[in-house]
Amino acid sequence: MPLPLGPLSLTPPVFLAPLAGITDLPFRRLVARFGAGLVVSEMVASAEIVRAQPEARARAELGLGEQATSVQLAGREPYWMAEGAKLVEGQGAKVIDINMGCPSKRVTTGLCGSALLRDLDLALTLIDAVVKAVKVPVTLKTRLGWDDTLHNAAELAKRAEGAGVQMITIHGRTRCQFYKGQANWAAIRAVKEAVRIPVIANGDITDTATAREALRLSGADGVMIGRGAQGAPWKLAQVAHDLYGTPAPKVPEGAARGRMILDHYEDMLTFYGRELGLRMARKHLGWYLDEAGLPHAREAILTSTDPAEVIVLLEQAFAELELAA
């Protein structure tokens, strides 16, 4: 079960995927407490973080002494990618991940993310620059290819391995699929067969059943879960328990779940500040309320502009839930 990555041993091989606006430090910290082999930051633009733009720094902020954390960088210029990698390594990142999979038009128009699947020579210059700039392991996250006429993830993976990349995560869709249709886990097998380094399957893996099927079809060494953890930060630990026999997470119920959510909420307010924290937390609170079966509490909680009122409403909602149980 342990997955070697340079000096690290990633246990279990169930990882938190990078999600824009979601996998910030407070959420990564919470998921890691339940149990995850690796947690990955939101994608950070390498030039922005070097130029000290506060938002980029906030997305990459690590929290020293916490569980193995990977910071994901994006860019199109070797110099900025290398400088960004050195900066986050100095902040405490245990792993640097290179994004070559983001499908957003804003990113690909700038020749970043999955646009690099159409220029593997440029992709390799970025990989080479990052690997040479840092001592920590460098990993790569990408897709099957640009579209159905260009499935070249296996070629990219092989060249990346030769340049020193130590692990590759494949989202089982092309760029032009965005998030439509179903992830093709079987197509990931071609990447697994092309390299000797670990390959991680990603895309539509939301629970134990989908994780098990993704591993069977892809032959991958582990899985990466993103949306499945929304509103359920214990989900990775539960999948790891079911697949690998790790300790089962203690899933909080009733008032205990309410306390966990309040702790997460207050962590976000501290991290972002009152105004931004209030806005950033709403998506998480919505997912928590849906997961707990409290949709009737959504409107009041998600429209409040007073953090103190939100805290009171959350306490009331989960106290009522415990009484009903």
Q: Mind summarizing the main beta sheet? A: 8 strands, parallel, barrel
| Fraction in beta strands | 5-15%
Q: How many helical elements?
A: 14
> What do the pLDDT scores average to?
92
- The total count of strands amounts to 11
Q: Termini, distance in Å?
A: 37 Å
Q: Based on CA inertia axes, which overall geometry fits? A: globular
How would you spell out the order of helices and strands?
Answer: EEEHEEHHEHEHHEHEHEHEHHHHH
Structural class: alpha/beta
Describe this structure in words.
Helix 1 (25-34) runs antiparallel to helix 11 (254-272) and helix 11 packs antiparallel against helix 12. It contains 14 helices and eleven strands. Strands 3-4-6-7-8-9-10-11 form an eight-stranded parallel β-barrel, surrounded by six helices. A two-stranded antiparallel sheet has the order 1-2. The mean pLDDT is 92. It has helices spanning 25-34, 46-50, 54-60, 78-91, 105-109, 120-133, 153-163, 189-194, 208-218, 235-244, 254-272, 274-292, 298-303, 307-324; strands spanning 3-5, 8-10, 14-16, 38-40, 44-45, 69-74, 95-100, 138-143, 167-171, 199-202, 222-225. The protein is an alpha/beta fold. The radius of gyration is 20 Å and the shape is globular. It is 48% helix and 14% strand. Helix 4 links the parallel strand 6 (69-74) and strand 7 (95-100).
What is the element layout, followed by pairings?
Blueprint: E1 3-5, E2 8-10, E3 14-16, H1 25-34, E4 38-40, E5 44-45, H2 46-50, H3 54-60, E6 69-74, H4 78-91, E7 95-100, H5 105-109, H6 120-133, E8 138-143, H7 153-163, E9 167-171, H8 189-194, E10 199-202, H9 208-218, E11 222-225, H10 235-244, H11 254-272, H12 274-292, H13 298-303, H14 307-324
Parallel strand pairs: 3-4, 3-11, 4-6, 5-6, 6-7, 7-8, 8-9, 9-10, 10-11
Antiparallel strand pairs: 1-2
Helix pairs in contact: 1-11, 4-6, 6-7, 11-12, 11-14
